[in-house]
């Protein structure tokens, strides 16, 4: 472990306004959205139920929640969610811009109110919020946007994000919402009690808040590096787009007037994920390293403080250039993992072999800002392999494996039956070969054998032991949630996205939310038809004001494309089975309720229609709403 760092000094530096009432409730007071006091136990010494290094990281991430002064003109609210909210003042004015807005509307509101109160005590009046910046397309950085909209109370508020933001925000948080959210319960330990035997954080922060999440679409897109255009009057901002790094759409910001560099989520006090355990597109470790090098070249010599959307800032200390040391070590580690994985891959090693055999330079492996608290060397090199080679390791035995239940049944039978496998697993557990004990017990459970209740109990013990020893926060959570669900059953997803967020989607994305929920085998039995939707008032940022969208049910798939708008007096195509004229808000309600499994008939709305309205009823009859509590550790 690196003993000579500034972690605890920097994590506590600059606190100007502690959060006085740290327990944040949902708007209807039904649930506790955020409670940092739940982590007070981390003030004690590390117990045997936790890895000391991860315990230390939890202590750092749970320092006093509140408003922190980064440098004159730049502030951060930390400890109110997994991520940070940053506030940058426009010199010689009462105006500010917000960078990122947490996971939930409730925590974002509390964070911004905390800054507003502090600003008012310093300047005599509340600040004027003129812009909201998104650094990237992950929900813990945009989910609280609706709170910023409300508190800014500014019809001209600029919402600014990197090129590709909305596309990727929708693909991760709408299209793949059910599967990712279910696995996020494991990754962030959402089912676990906050305690020395339960969830102690996830390495990147403590946890996701569990309130209402919103999506407000940008009205300005950053498409080029360099000075922001159009800019913020009085505040120079230099942009560095970094697509393919920590997110497929991401941007760093440099503020020359403050000698401050915002690295988005590209440089944190942990090794990050190349492929997340909750599921996401594989990141590019090579590009990540290249962009970090570019950041150093562009801004390193001008920067006095680097801050990010998680953790605490890093400041220069006299002659010690901690900023460039911090960035260069991150750069070198991602490059090393990439290059070493490819070297071993090109010598025939499989992902599992690379993860076991890779050796990292001691001077990097010992650095606390590079420890595997969130990402890990083990699953990162597998992600790098996956980016180049895909799911298949080249061994024909792994090309057409049996599904989990069938494979497990054959394993158990070939090993002499369920009682024999259970005894073998207990023997491996006793010899502390927990990894293979888990493999045997997992097969036993998926074989649906007569003694699987006992197998579940033993596997829960094994997962608990593995969790207690894990340095990686997300590994600990995965193991402990696995143990929890073996004992208590599957947990439904707690986070919800505000239905208002569908207003941010393009028509293509809106209808895709429905298309991905049709039960294809049944839909494929229908002969199919077409529907035109004519929308009279689309937001100009999405389309022309009046637009048409043509959808088609064919061969079990719902597809669509834009068509010219036609007035009710002149339908576009007499061969279309149904044409509907509607406003944008009503269309969102119609499609949103259908995708949620709560369809309404078109004749319930004030619409103009030509053709057979039952065609819409046919589409909605095929909707299958995802099970947000699907099994993971059991068949």
Automatic annotation (TrEMBL):
GO terms for biological process: dodecyl sulfate metabolic process. Residues 82-310 form the Metallo-beta-lactamase domain. SMART domains: Lactamase_B (SM00849). One of its GO terms (molecular function) is metal ion binding. It holds the Pfam family Lactamase_B. InterPro entries: Alkyl/aryl-sulf_dimr_sf, Alkyl_sulf_C, Alkyl_sulf_dimr, Bact_Alkyl/Aryl-Sulfatase, Bds1/SdsA1_MBL-fold, Metallo-B-lactamas, RibonucZ/Hydroxyglut_hydro, SCP2_sterol-bd_dom_sf. Transmembrane segments: none annotated. Keywords: Hydrolase, Metal-binding, Zinc. CDD domains: arylsulfatase_Sdsa1-like_MBL-fold (cd07710). PANTHER family: ALKYL/ARYL-SULFATASE (PTHR43223), ALKYL_ARYL-SULFATASE BDS1 (PTHR43223:SF1). Belongs to the metallo-beta-lactamase superfamily. Type III sulfatase family. This is Metallo-beta-lactamase domain-containing protein.
